[in-house]
Design a protein that fits this description.
The complex is a heterodimer. By secondary structure, chain A is an alpha/beta fold. Chain A is built from ten helices and six strands; from the N terminus they run H-H-H-E-H-H-E-H-H-E-E-E-H-H-H-E. Chain A has a six-stranded mixed sheet, sandwiched between helices. In chain A, helix 3 packs parallel to helix 6. The longest helix of chain A is centred in the last third of the chain and has 30 residues. The termini of chain A are far apart. Chain B is 87% helix and 0% strand. The termini of chain B are far apart. The chains are: A alpha/beta, B mainly alpha. At the A-B interface, helix 2, helix 6, helix 9 and helix 10 of A face helix 1, helix 2 and helix 3 of B.
Chain lengths: 308, 85
């Protein structure tokens, strides 16, 4: 078997290397599709095998949040046990109801958890993140998002509560980070409560509820029991890292073959500008750049809440 | 001949600019994988349209050429879907 035919273009016909043929591309596609299907299957059979490991700590998240506030000359936030409890209840509720959002399928809102833990806020906000491996990545991703940054750098907040919990969502073991902000200061002392960052036009207006409803919610505040999660063992396979590894491998491999093809055809004096080398390399280059910069974590848009 | 080379260079430049814009979008949307995937899918769609137009004007539009583009696009999408979503 002529091994070089797999890597370099044909000597006489100048046809592409076998590993760049449509059949080879078909095999790469099938391989990746099977990889994804295997992860989905594994997550159903044994979710504990798949997951991410993280070294996120509550103190570090608070520290990094205050560093970001400090850069803008804002006072640091103080850890609040009631907000911690609310954040923990919210995290467990997401595992229990199997969702990842600010509002539960059952209708529970972040404000319900805060009021349920006894935190009677006048201004409050919530940021969520999941599947990150370190606190720097979490805060950096939040700061890159206008709505999360708005919460982190909101001058009205005085307290912060954090929950970092491992559990299973959609059949996959993950680490959730719930960050809650608020202040219990009287509304009278907050004349500009609704104006938090006018410079950012992308921030949606905060949700406002009438005081009567707020009072009613306080009275019937949800008490979400914090149920101990099943012991989660260290995941054996990190599907994200494995997919990323194979993705970068294949994209780099094909790009390298295309480059070799281009150089050899150019040397032979048969390279045509009509060839697809540059277009393919541009697309694969973007795919590779995306894969390289990709972190496993996800954030949901941040939200804030004000009592009228 | 000169005109053809110019056309090719300009076409490649258009695709390169689209690629650079997509990379910027992907970096700005860190932590929002769905949005990143939408940005990349837009580029893939543009890449296919670009291929159709480019090879049409180049008079090199053939089924096998388009299959090669479609498979490359599909591979990029499958890999990115697998990692992002």
């Amino acid at each position: 078997m002529d091994l070089h035919k797999w890597i370099i273009p044909h000597r006489d016909t100048h046809k592409r290397a076998h590993l760049l043929s449509w059949r080879a591309f078909f095999v790469y596609i099938i391989f990746f599709a099977l990889l994804k299907i295997s992860f989905s299957g594994l997550s159903i059979i044994n979710p504990d095998i798949l997951g991410t490991t993280s070294n996120i700590t509550k103190d570090r998240i608070i520290e990094l949040t205050n560093v970001e506030r400090g850069k803008l000359g804002l006072p640091p936030l103080s850890g609040n046990p009631a907000l911690d409890q609310a954040a923990t209840a919210k995290a467990y509720n997401m595992f229990e109801e199997n969702y990842w959002a600010h509002f539960a399928p059952s209708g529970k809102s972040p404000w319900d958890f805060m009021l349920g833990s006894g935190y009677k806020f006048s201004v409050a906000g919530e940021n969520l993140a999941k599947s990150f491996s370190n606190p720097e990545e979490v805060v950096s991703a939040w700061m890159a998002s206008p709505t999360h940054r708005e919460n982190i750098t909101n001058s009205k907040y005085k307290d912060i509560g954090i929950a970092i919990e491992d559990g299973v969502i959609n059949g996959q073991t993950t680490t959730l980070v719930v960050q809650m902000f608020g202040t219990t200061s009287a509304l009278a002392s907050l004349p500009n409560t609704r104006n938090t960052n006018e410079t950012n036009a992308k921030i949606p207006p905060p949700t406002v509820i009438p005081v009567e409803e707020y009072e009613r919610k306080s009275e019937i505040a949800l008490s979400v029991p914090v149920v101990a999660q099943a012991q989660i063992s260290e995941p054996i396979i990190n599907p994200f890292q494995l997919s990323k590894f194979f993705g970068i491998g294949i994209v780099t491999f094909i790009s390298a073959l295309l480059f070799i093809d281009f150089v050899i055809l150019k040397r032979r004096g048969v390279f045509s500008l009509s060839s697809n080398h540059f277009a393919h390399m541009a697309l694969l280059g973007v795919a590779a750049a995306t894969l390289f910069q990709l972190e496993s974590g996800q954030i949901a848009s941040g939200i804030a809440f004000f009592v009228k | 001949m000169k005109l053809t080379i110019k056309l090719h260079k300009h076409s490649v430049l258009v695709l390169a600019i689209a690629a650079v814009f997509t990379i910027i979008a992907v970096f700005r949307l860190q932590g929002l994988p769905l949005m990143q995937f939408v940005s990349l899918s837009t580029l893939v769609f543009f890449y296919l349209i670009w291929a159709l137009i480019f090879h049409h004007f180049d008079k090199s539009l053939k089924l096998e050429v388009m299959i090669e583009y479609i498979l490359t696009a599909l591979l990029a999408l499958v890999i990115l879907y697998g990692v992002l979503l």
